[in-house]
Amino acid sequence: MVERVYLHIGLPKTGTSYLQTIAWSSRPQLKRDGVVLPGRERRDHLWASRIIRQGPHIDTLPRAQRTAWDRIRAELREASGTGLVSHEFLASASGDQARRLVEDLAPAEVHVIVTARNALDLFTASWQESLKNKSTIPMSEYSTRVSKRPTVVWNWRALDLRLVLRRWVEAVPAERIHVLPVDTAAPRHQLWTTFAETIGVDPVLYDTRDSFPNVSMGVVEAETLRRVNRHLVGFDRAFDRGVWIRTFLADERLVPRGGEKYWPLPEQVQDCRRRSARAVAFVRRRGFDVRGDLSHLLVPDELPDRRTPDTVTDREVAQVAVELVATLLADVRAEHGRARTAEPAQPRAWFQIGRSARRKKRRNARS
């Protein structure tokens, strides 16, 4: 059995995809450094988080998903050194589920890594992420209550640092819970440097060029997507949401438009400010291992002027929607032309569009 396991539990929208991309693309280097990243693929950690959090209809899932946590545990039992498990949805686990997870990994010494941002940035980014997962909830109604269900992620249950730490400290001593405040003004690689040093590897030995940050939609684009979601029939599978809504429509067609940044309503801003202050006080009081400056978790007293999503007009949404239709028609025509000229033995699948775009983005990031 590995001697220790680092559980990176999020929070969601704190650079988790960035860190996971580096880790999964660097498995050979991690192995040389004595760190085991268990699983056949990155999705194994997502599937394992669903098993741990007792998601619905587990018995009906494909075998690869049902057995993900068992396979991860088996791989860690057969290895030595350090294990690394990373998925942001673990932030939503209950205290009992956290304790069972730690028991499942015995006798390994379990450490928890929590990447965190100030609550206002986190709240705004998570609402947009919920739209990419087919939500139709306007920002004014988003996360008005703390959910009691561990399966709910786009909610203060997984976004409020204090609430997450309160549950996880029931399972892991505070000195083994490492809080990494994200400085959004710092160079992107600083987050990887802090994370790598926390798990005990030299960050310089790892290639971060294939990783890139998630870019946000503007306020009109986000509101347009929310309204489009109302009319989508199907698209309920995670694959469909991820490929078509998140990647194809949001990341590749709405995000490139740019657009205005935005805030939630003033009373929501104040709520975020209170949650951030309580979280920082809790971290200081309980003695967690802090790797960075806790002041980055506080919402500034003075904020730049920005719109709120409720100010978006029908005219603005119509303009984005019309231009989006034109973009999609051009995409269909280009795809049709490629399909007609493609070799029969190498048909081009629609889902490859997203993969091609991501490869292009990585090439541009290197140049």
Features:
367 residues; Rossmann fold; 2 domains; 6-stranded parallel β-sheet; 15 helices; 49% helix
Word description of this protein:
- By secondary structure, this protein is an alpha/beta fold.
- The chain has 2 domains: 4-214 and 265-297, Rossmann fold, CATH 3.40.50.300; 219-260 and 313-366, no CATH class.
- The chain is built from 15 helices and 6 strands.
- The chain has helices at 16-25, 27-32, 43-52, 63-66, 68-77, 95-104, 119-132, 156-159, 161-168, 189-199, 219-229, 238-254, 266-286, 314-341, 352-366, and strands at 4-8, 35-36, 82-86, 109-116, 177-181, 289-290.
- A 6-stranded parallel beta sheet has the order 2-3-1-4-5-6, with helices on both faces.
- α3 crosses α5 (68-77).
- The longest helix is centred in the last third of the chain and has 28 residues, at 314-341.
- The two termini are 42 Å apart.
- 38% of the residues are buried.
- Residues 345-351 have low confidence and may be disordered.
In short:
This protein is 49% helix and 7% strand. It is an alpha/beta fold and 367 residues long.
Secondary structure layout plus pairing:
Elements: E1 4-8, H1 16-25, H2 27-32, E2 35-36, H3 43-52, H4 63-66, H5 68-77, E3 82-86, H6 95-104, E4 109-116, H7 119-132, H8 156-159, H9 161-168, E5 177-181, H10 189-199, H11 219-229, H12 238-254, H13 266-286, E6 289-290, H14 314-341, H15 352-366
Parallel strand pairs: 1-3, 1-4, 2-3, 4-5, 5-6
Helix pairs in contact: 3-5, 9-13, 11-14
Number of strand elements: 6
Q: What would the principal axes of the Cα set say about the shape?
A: globular
Low-confidence stretches: 345-351
In CATH terms, the superfamily of the largest domain is: P-loop containing nucleotide triphosphate hydrolases
Distance between the termini: 42 Å
Strand order of the largest sheet: 2-3-1-4-5-6
Largest sheet: 6 strands, parallel
CATH class category label of the largest domain: Alpha Beta
Helix content: 40-55%
Whole-number total of structural domains: 2
Structural class: alpha/beta
Radius of gyration equals: 21 Å
* Mean of pLDDT: 92
